[in-house]
Amino acid sequence: MLLNYLYNHFLEEHDFAQTCDLSLSDLCQLVERRVLPAPSYVYGASGRSSSFVSDAADDTTYRFHLKGYTAWIEAIQRFGLDTEERARTHFFDRYNASRSAFLSSDLGKALTAVAPAVTKQFDADHANATWSHFLNGVYGVCTRDGLPESIFLKQSGVMFIEAMIQQTADKIGQIDLGLLGRAVDFLDAVESEFAPHEVEASSRQCCIIDVRKKYLGGLAA
Question: End-to-end alpha-carbon separation of the chain, Å?
Fold first, then answer.
């Protein structure tokens, strides 16, 4: 199941490099220069294959990059993001544009009205943590494409949903369930499915699956 998930949503390092028309050495250098995220999953294989022709042992480490990061490679090449400073500036130009567009949307305004403290959490420390997680491959795990726009939307979706449901039982009726449902559907569109062994401990579980079950009658999007 895990390998099926990885090959459906990611490219193994050699395939990723080939798809991006890079040598494996060039790909590794981009990661080392901190302009490209590290692989989101590292899979250590230790097993044996048996067939009519022959048997073979497999003791290999496989590194998986999110398929969506082919678009980040394109940005690196198009905009000359050859240093961490340039890559970070480009990242936050897009991240902040996504933030502005969302917060000025009808959904963004409605969520901000019920949970105004959320927007204050997007400070310098949050930005530094976001960039660090991006480079470490974290957002390749928890978003569908790993790109700056989706990263902001994923973060804000989780934060607004958590803020809405952090109420005592006697106040639960004050939650706007229609708005909560819209926020959950919105998060569902940008957040990854997560690998099978990760779902239970993920924000998908607590902010989508559990919220739908507890507050929204178990309804899917």
Answer: 24
